[in-house]
Description:
Layout: E1 5-18, E2 21-34, E3 38-42, H1 49-57, E4 65-73, E5 76-77, H2 83-89, E6 94-97, H3 101-104, H4 111-122, H5 127-140, H6 146-149, H7 159-170, E7 177-181, H8 189-206, E8 209-214, H9 217-223, E9 226-231, E10 234-240, H10 241-246, H11 251-258, E11 308-309, E12 315-316, H12 319-323
Parallel strand pairs: 3-8, 3-9, 6-7, 7-8
Antiparallel strand pairs: 1-2, 1-4, 4-5, 9-10, 10-12, 11-12
Helix pairs in contact: 4-5, 4-7, 5-7, 7-8
Amino acid sequence: MLADNLLEVKNLSVSFKTRRGTVRAVRDLSFTLKRGEVLGIVGESGSGKSVSMNAVMGLIQDQNAQITGEVIFDGVDLLKKSDEELRAIRGKDIAMVFQDPMTALTPVYTIGWHIREQIQLHSDISNDAAYKRAIELLEEVGIPDPDKRVDQYPHEFSGGMRQRAIIAMALSLNPKLLIADEPTTALDVTIQAQILELLERLRKSHNSSIIIITHDMGVISELSSEVLVMYAGRMVERSSKSSLFSNPRHPYTKGLMNSVPRVDRDRTSRLETIAGQPASILNLPSGCAFRNRCPLAHAACEEIPPFKSDVSDHGAACFLVEAGAVR
């Protein structure tokens, strides 16, 4: 019988040695992802969202990188796998939709070639069968005239269509886990809604788990069932979507939510902003990394707050949670 948890990340840390010192990009990240669940990872640029998922995928090849912890996928620790073993898993069992589809596609090859290569790399299938499957996938993700579009090049697709083509590639082998890194960046609101609807529909039809990386709380509210908030390389809050939006417990999470327009707020009121600049992961402040920007910071914040969860599995790394000061 399959275990409920498809992915278990335990104390994952990623650091890079540079001339200016050690960059601690991800610090002691731990979470679980159930089968069929959608986990949203949210935070500002530089918070460690993409780096952590690149580590999960085994895509960090920098010789100055140090990765520790455990990444248990379907009962297997990916961090103990060789590059060859990981290549057999990537694309087939774990697929990734990258932030910029244009850089993920080779401009001198057709869209159909990209999808066929993905399929034939992991399965024994003829060119004709792979070509037909590429057309089916393009139709499945909503590309018009897929039998013609399959022979076109990336520059002949619009931004939204390129993103759909990348999703078609990612789903070509029905992966157990799909990681989408900012899949709606630089897309207009209409196309963004279509991409999110597509991901949800394909999740249901393929029964895949999804991790969506974003800085947009609107995307999180639309697609995710669980939410993980990161700041300066550390998880600062995690809970179900409903619990997070109804009762954010970390001041950073509250700041992110208050910076988004809401229909139940006076239109003439100004949106709130988070004061200051994001903490530098090259030179992190002592104690809580958010304390220099936090309006509720106090003496206890000079120590690193532990991450604590309640009986509902809503957790946060903040001393103010126990005192009930975050409202």
